[in-house]
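Aim 2 progress update. The chain analyzed this quarter is reproduced below.
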Amino acid sequence: MTEYPKAIKFKYSWRKYQLRVLEELQAHLKDGHLHVVAPPGSGKTVLGLEVAIRINKPTLILAPTRAIRNQWIQRFCELFLQTDTVPDWISKDIRNPKFMTVVTYQGLHAACNDQDVTGNDSNLDRILRRLQLQKIGTIVVDEAHHLKNEWWHTLINIKKKLKPIVVGLTATPPYDVSPTEWQRYMDLNGLIDAEISVPELIIERDLCPHQDYIYFTSPSQKETQFIKDYRESMRKLFTEISKDEIVLQAIQKHPIWLDPNADLEWVYNNLKFYSACLIFLHANQIPIPELHLEIIGSKDFKIPELDYEWIEILLDFYLHREKVHFNAFEEHRNMLTNRLQRHGALEKKQVNFSQNSRIRQYLTSSISKMESIKSIVDFEYDKLGKDLRLVILSDFIRKEFYVNSTLNDLELNKIGVIPIFEKLRRENKNNKKIGVLTGSIIIIPTDSYPAFKTTSAKYAVYDTYTSPVPFDPNYLSINQTEGLQHNIVHIVTQLFQAGEIEILLGTKSLLGEGWDAPAINSLILASFVGSFVLSNQMRGRAIRAQLGNKNKTANIWHLVCADPTSATGGDDLKLLKRRFRSFVGISLRQEPEIENGIGRFDLPENINNVGEISKKNAEILEFAANRADLKQRWNVALSKGVNLVEEIKIPFDEEQDYQRVKALYLHKTIKNLLVTVAAAWLSFGLDHVQGFIQALKNMQSLRDLYMYMAGLGAIGMLLFGRKTIKSLRIYLKYRDITKDLKKVSQALLDALLKAHIIRADHEELRVETQVDRSGSVYCHLEGGTTFDKSIFINALCEIVAPIDNPRYVIVRKNTFAFFVKQEDYHAVPEVLARKKELAEYFSNQWKQHVGNCDLIFTRSITGRKLILKARVKSLAAQLEEKVQQVNKWR
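Predicted structure tokens:
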């Protein structure tokens, strides 16, 4: 068999976004890859199968799990062959490949690396020969973010030998991995060709209107005490180490202190360590000679205070980075290392005074979240009653909380499936139907057993063995027989779909991926997993549309324990912020918008405050209660745009309203200018009127009059114009910077086109910038491919973000009305800085679009000095981490 049977045809109509990919298929396949990013529920499987059929070559399909592997075969037979019988030209055995071979990544790797090998050939070679004999020409990789290091090596070897067309399908590219891992992912899948967005699926009704909600808690009394004790311990440790005499001696004997000019190259390559040493010495009243101040850019440079961040950098240098000059202090370094480890300030060679793995664990697995879960369950049941289909996902089962006695009164001091089950069971005031589905423990309500037997019989399973839960006869424990083992998930899922179980608890590993139950209308993520991939997969379970239920909406609940000792809310909130970078949803503002990120919740700054937590939770519950309004909010937001664009966002960072601040300082500028002029005339006109008249008599020409008036004006400005200039500076700071950003973006776009990094036609591309009512500035590229847009946004972020260590820097000079001089520093993006001619072309475009600038090569002493100066004075540095990459529906 060398091609797919001619009669094969997808039995349904293609969705609009699927059709878009298929119509552009030949263009996408020019580089031998098709890489599609699409959310759960978008029909990636059938799209992948159709692409394989159109390529029409023997196919290898790789799936992350056995369940998903079987799903591929089932969907192919049902939707394309329209039969229940699997044809003999489909194989699930990589050792015996056929025209279509469907296996798991793990199965492929295990077969290729089996140690039981005879003869000279490796198993990889044998499998490669068999695949080559089958003339495999297409490899479909489903959710390729699952690849472990060793699996990746196997797959890349196979790709190199077979040279197939690779079809990569994923719901979530692994955006949060290292650059090396990302490059590896791209090497396998190719550049992203098409991205199907959540709003598109809502429009097509393949996903239901849904909303993420964050429910906050405060740590328990015991947890809070531990955190406070830790913070106090760190404060004392910091105070003691910040005055450590031996560290002071060590630094003052180091060459970078004694003679920095002797090794300036080292200094400028290790600026943070050098700066930390100076800050540490300054904090201990050691005078800093002008020599050092000149090196760091200016004699007037104000040395920062020693804080946790700077002492962490200093200790990293003293304990780990310096390999030669601190050897004389080895004993003290070992003692200090042990001391830091005992206090929890040193983990895996990372010095950290503000974060600690135990605090992180206390927050992410805080027992206070148990009460949150119960509150949410009761709230959702109160709103939906018997229509509630709620799933709770946790990381661990915690079997130790399941006891074989008639009473289970164990203290529920850990989060997990069984402790949550116990919490809900013990406080089940509405007789809610609660079930448990994990790999080792399965519990159903006793009242649901008849439905369980009926459903099992549909799978030809009759040997169902159950036993009452020892401490509650209202529940049955299902003993997994051999017959049940392969079907139990399907059986329990059907009970849940039918309402025989209203609240289902399970682990993320079992229900997080590949599991499908469209009836879910509420999901609680009692999971600590922070990766884009797993959290998005789990969330995807709830947002799928349900046939026959046009009014379905879904609430997804995220639990956060706020750290009362952290101004930013702590590590648990930080983890959630990372998750939300991959979630696109509806904002909770008065005017709803579709965007990603946690910004759509408008969280208060002091969310660690108990009062603010209570207030925010009440606001969240008010939104969650109104499911009818949720659908309308999606409709309003969808009407505002046509596609999801990737852009940068520069927030307006003032407590006051942007428009008011801008107007305020403009009015102040005008007012102060008028006052200055009036004051000058009053002061000089009334007090010196006689001198003025006398001077007029002595003037020989009109030029003398002008000179006299200019002198008076200059004196007036000096005495009275300070406020005018200050107000004008502040107004300029808040001027409409969209125009400025657009010019920079246009210079960047021209350079990227010149470098052939973006390959679209210039006429197809357009830079769009705008400012919202809050003063936040947005910029994105209109037109081009997903790759073009991503390259553009990443490069623009490099330009506007704080200077780090670029190869080239643009020094930008502005003059306004002869007296305002502004000097800003911007990195030349890495993609343009690789070649001198591209950096120069970008500089020329900058001059053409933006204004006067100098291009500086930083891999020299002069350039290094400039980088340091740029870090100290750069306008971009004021933005720090405020520049964001966001996705917005426009």
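The chain has five domains: 16-196, 210-219+366-446+499-639, 222-362, 658-733, 747-889. The first helix runs from residue 16 to 23. These observations will guide the mutagenesis experiments scheduled for the next reporting period.
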